[in-house]
């Protein structure tokens, strides 16, 4: 179980860095290299990139920090309860479902894909797979 928790912590750190870069880009107008998909700027300047005055990247930063710190907390515990595992599993499901929504908006409404958003979506897929594995190891 420690190995899976380590993977979750590492992947959530990658997701955090990815989201933090997009958040910093929003506020500080950092360079945004996006050579593969050419859609980053289109996506990040679309009306779908904000929830009111808050950039979606802020929610990504918050999500990945919660997952990372909760996972690190679980890693240090001698005994992990079923409810803690279910909470971690629920977090991975929420992240995955939100990524499906965001990637669908990019593909079908905006018509462009942001490379950084795709990396975040990949992170949520890996987190979901790890969440399924850790839940399965705990409940079966």
Task: Explain what this protein looks like in three dimensions.
This protein is mostly helical and 140 residues long. The protein has a two-stranded antiparallel ribbon with strand order 1-2. Helix 1 packs antiparallel against helix 3 and helix 4 packs antiparallel against helix 5. The radius of gyration is 16 Å and the shape is elongated. The chain starts with a helix and ends with a helix. The mean pLDDT is 92.
Task: Please summarize what this structure is.
The chain is built from 5 helices and 2 strands, in the order ααββααα.
What value does the Rg take, in angstroms?
A: 16 Å
Which consecutive residue ranges, at least 5 long each, have pLDDT under 50?
none
Largest sheet: 2 strands, antiparallel
Structural class: mainly alpha
| Average pLDDT metric | 92
- The share of residues in helices is over 70%
Strand order of the largest sheet: 1-2
Rounded to the nearest angstrom, the distance between the terminal CA atoms is 13 Å
The tally of helices reads 5
Q: How many DSSP E strands?
A: 2
The run of helices and strands is HHEEHHH
Q: Given the C-alpha coordinates, what overall shape results?
A: elongated
């Amino acid at each position: 179980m420690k190995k899976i928790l380590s993977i979750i912590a590492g992947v959530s750190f990658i997701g955090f860095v990815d989201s933090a870069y997009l958040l910093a880009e929003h506020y500080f107008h950092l360079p945004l290299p996006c050579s593969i998909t050419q859609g980053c700027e289109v996506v990040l300047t679309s009306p779908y990139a904000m929830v009111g005055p808050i950039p979606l990247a802020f929610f990504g930063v918050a999500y990945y920090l919660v997952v990372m710190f909760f996972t690190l907390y679980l890693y240090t515990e001698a005994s992990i309860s079923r409810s803690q595992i279910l909470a971690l599993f629920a977090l991975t499901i929420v992240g995955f479902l939100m990524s499906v929504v965001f990637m669908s908006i990019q593909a079908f409404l905006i018509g462009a894909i942001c490379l950084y958003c795709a990396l975040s979506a990949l992170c949520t897929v890996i987190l979901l797979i790890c969440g399924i594995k850790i839940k399965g190891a705990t409940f079966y």
